[in-house]
Amino acid sequence: MRRDGALRRLTVDDGTVWLWNVRHRHPGCRTVLALRRAERPHALLRLVFREVPGRAVAGFTTGRHEVIAVVGGRLDLDEPGVVRRFLDAAVARGLVPSANGSREEDGWPLFDELTTDRADDGGGLAVDGG
């Protein structure tokens, strides 16, 4: 099992290398997916999943970094293909900072987008050290 928060590498179709990690945080019970380009390690996007009615994050009855909606299913943030889908959606929405600094976004709207369109298989994915 990976250490919580360990950095992982994800290489996409154009050869861009992304670094990512997942952590579960307290207080406030939340799971955070952090994404950054390897060449811009200080331009960080944090997708935050907080427990709210009808939505749950990792816990006793779930996988370590699963995020779940009562209506909408579940996604495991430890799976590189799932992370790739979140990355693609975040890039398409212009959420990834291009300069140094961090940006925090609610991850649930992207979750909803990804769970309504399960046809995407995360093609072109290469995982290093994963």
Characterise this structure:
The chain has 130 residues and is an alpha+beta fold. 17% of the residues lie in helices and 38% in strands. It is built from two helices and nine strands; from the N terminus they run βββββββαβαβ. Strands 8-4-3-2-1-9 form a six-stranded mixed beta sheet. β5 (55-57) and β6 (66-69) form a beta hairpin. It is globular, with a radius of gyration of 14 Å. The termini are close together. Residues 119-130 have low confidence and may be disordered.
The quaternary state of the protein chains shown equals single chain
Major pleated sheet? 6 strands, mixed
Total count of strands: 9
Q: Estimate what percentage of residues fall within beta strands.
A: 35-45%
Our count of helices gives 2
pLDDT < 50 runs, ≥5 residues: 119-130
Task: Determine the fraction of residues in helical runs and give it as a percent range.
Answer: 10-25%
Bulk shape: globular
Radius of gyration: 14 Å
Order of helices and strands: EEEEEEEHEHE
Class by SSE composition:
alpha+beta
Chain-averaged pLDDT: 84
- How widely separated are the two ends? 11 Å
- Spatially, the strands of the biggest sheet line up as 8-4-3-2-1-9
Structure characteristics:
130 residues; alpha+beta; three-stranded antiparallel sheet; 2 helices; 38% strand; globular
Compile the SSE list and pairings.
Blueprint: E1 8-11, E2 17-25, E3 30-37, E4 43-50, E5 55-57, E6 66-69, E7 73-76, H1 80-92, E8 101-106, H2 108-116, E9 126-128
Parallel strand pairs: 4-8
Antiparallel strand pairs: 1-2, 1-9, 2-3, 3-4, 5-6, 6-7
Helix pairs in contact: 1-2
